[in-house]
Amino acid sequence: MKLNSNTELEFNIRMLVAKSKKEVFFMEIAIKSRKEQEDDNRRLYILKTAEKLFAQNGFHETSVSDIARESEFGIGTLYKYFKDKDTLFLELLKFRTEQHYSILENILNEEGKSPLTRIYTFVDKYIDYLSENKAFFFLFYTYVHPRISSDHTLQCVLERRMKFIAVLGKVLEEARKQEEIIDVDIDMLLFALYGTMISVFFLALHKYADKWNIEDMKAGLKTVIFNQVASDPIAFANNK
After folding, report:
1. 207-225 pLDDT, tens per residue?
2. What residues contact residue 107 under an 8 Å CB cut-off, 6+ apart?
3. Whole-prediction pTM value?
4. I want to staple 53 with a disulfide (CB 3.0 to 4.6 A). Which of 62, 76, 140, 238 is the partner?
5. How many CA atoms lie within 13 A of 21 on its CB side?
6. pLDDT < 70 regions, the chain
7. SS3 for 230?
8. Distance of alpha carbon 140 from alpha carbon 178, whole angstroms
9. pLDDT score for 185
10. Which of 37, 56, 81 is the last residue of a domain?
11. Of 81, 105, 133, which closes a domain?
12. Domain containing 69 — which CATH number?
C-alpha cells in the first residue's frame, strides 16, 4: 500500500518519536548504571576507610565523624549508605568474610587436582590473603571472633564460617580416603588446622611486625599441621 504525503509524514514523525523515546530509555539506563556504580564505589571506599580506623583505634573508639573525616565525605553521605556505625561494621564483616571464604572455597573445590595439593594451595592463599588484609584480620580476630558465638548480630558471619569449615573438612576427608594423609580423626585435624590458621596471624604480628616472611609462614603452617599426617613426606617437602 502506498502512503500519501500526509500519512507518510505522520508515519515518519511517529518513527522519530519512537526512536527518541528508545534513546532516552537506554540513556536513562546508562545514567542509572553509572549512578549505581558510583554508589557501590563510595560504599566500598567508606567500608575500607572504616576498616582501617577500627583496626587502628578500636571499634568503640572510632566514631562516624572519624570515618567521615578520614574518607572525606560528609556525615550525611555516610548515613545515606549506612544506618549507623553498627550497620556499617556488619556490612564490612559480611563483605570481607564472603570475599575471604569464597576465594578459599574456589581453591578447595578446584577440579583436576588432588585433595592434598588443593589444601596446600589453600594454605598458601590464606597466608597471602592475611598479609594483604592485616587490618581486617586484626579487627576480626581481636574484636569479632571472641563474640561470634554469643552475639546474635554476628550470626551470619558464624554461619558463613561453618559453611567454609564444612568444605575444608570434606577435602580433608577426600585426602584421607585417597590415602594422601594417614587414617586420622578428620574432625580433630580440621579444627587443629583451623585453630593454627588463626594463631599464625598473631604469631606473624609478633614475629614479623610489618615485614612478614610470607614463604616462611606458608612452609611453617604446612609443616606444623601436615608433617605428621602426610602419607608421603617427600611429596609434602616438595610442596612446602
Report:
1. 776 677 888 888 888 888 8
2. 118, 121, 122, 125
3. 0.74
4. 62
5. 6
6. 1-32, 209-210, 232-240
7. strand
8. 35
9. 93
10. 81
11. 81
12. 1.10.10.60
